[in-house]
Amino acid sequence: MKRKIPAIIALLSALGFAACIQGTAQAEANGANQAASETATEDSSAETDSADFLDAVDSSADAGLPGAFDFETHTVLLNSGYEMPIMGLGTYSLSDEECYNSVTALLEAGGRLIDTAYMYGNEAAVGRAVRDSDVPREEIFVITKLYPGEQFANPEKAIQDALDKLDIGYIDMMLLHHPGENDVKAYQEMEQAVAEGKIHSIGLSNWYVDELEEFLPQVTITPALVQNEIHPYYQENDVIPYIQDLGIVVQGWYPFGGRGHTAELLSDSVISEIAAAHGVTSAQVILRWNLQKGVVVIPGSSNPDHIRENLDLFGFELSDDEMERINALDRGEKHDWY
Ligand SMILES: NC(=O)c1ccc[n+]([C@@H]2O[C@H](COP(=O)([O-])OP(=O)(O)OC[C@H]3O[C@@H](n4cnc5c(N)ncnc54)[C@H](OP(=O)(O)O)[C@@H]3O)[C@@H](O)[C@H]2O)c1
Predict the structure, then answer these.
(1) Which fold has domain 86-327?
(2) pLDDT tens-digit profile of 78-120?
(3) Could you identify which of 71, 85, 230, 262 might form a hypothetical disulfide with 256, taking C-beta atoms 3.0 to 4.6 angstroms apart as the criterion?
(4) What is the chain's mean pLDDT, rounded?
(5) Residues designated catalytic
(6) Where are the domains of the chain?
(7) Which of 253, 284, 335, 337 to mutate to test the pocket of ligand 1 (most atoms within 8 A of CB)?
């Protein structure tokens, strides 16, 4: 995916204004003024930076703020300056062949976002499907993850292994799969890989409020994305705004509750009623509910019909009342341990 308004992102990042860029245009202007006055006593290059910063903030109003979903282009602008699609495909538990076929079906259907991980054992299959596709590489956005243990202990090697297995030139987004020993060290190595152009954006998975408060002061690059479990029975309504207010995009895993739970969620009477009212499926209602909360979706599927259905989310809109009815389904019921 292409990089947009790199000047504003780089400057905001350098000035520690990652949180500010998620706010309103007014808040952004305030931040710009504060940044300008804070740097006023510094040397002449700082003066130039402040002027560039103000110009960049002005132009951001036209360009769209990082974190805001664009329902026309179906993308979100990350705080790294890159655009990412807001719906895609998860590949957890897909075997090599299933994974290759699913990614191929996604790309043929117009989907461009793929989530894999070292732990899923299918990075090579994802890479092969991307390379075999007619879709230009720069239109595709691949996320992979480093796993605690050996990978966090030797992150330089782990990053190179991911690059080699995927074999698609660069990695669009790399996440730490969940907190663990050496996570700061692993993140710092990902920061180095960003500087070297091997990875475009970096982030975290399964980090919640306490974990983020402890982790963020120890790293330089604000994560572009946090990927956590989110579905109607486990909504994270306190965590999502906290993350979004930091200028970080939220992505949900297990949107249908994960295998073993999908039947209950997809046949939930509230969701089924709303689906019937719009002439869509329960799966589409759940995915659309996520998008309207500003949560990026990566449903897993090995069924091309489902993959197409899961991309078809823009012909209807949930009302405030329907959003509230789904919000009321929250049970705080986590379906995995992370
Ligand atoms: N960061 C983490 O710790 C973490 C943890 C878990 C998952 N993830 C990521 O999140 C992704 C999503 O999670 P998940 O795949 O485990 O679970 P999920 O998306 O909640 O559910 C997948 C199940 O839903 C079914 N399904 C998909 N689309 C459907 C549709 N339109 N209608 C009916 N059924 C449908 C699939 O069956 P079919 O194959 O028949 O379509 C599959 O059995 C994963 O693939 C992975 O990329 C991340």
Answers:
(1) TIM Barrel (3.20.20)
(2) 999 999 999 999 999 999 999 999 999 999 999 999 999 999 9
(3) 262
(4) 87
(5) 120
(6) 6-63, 86-327
(7) 253
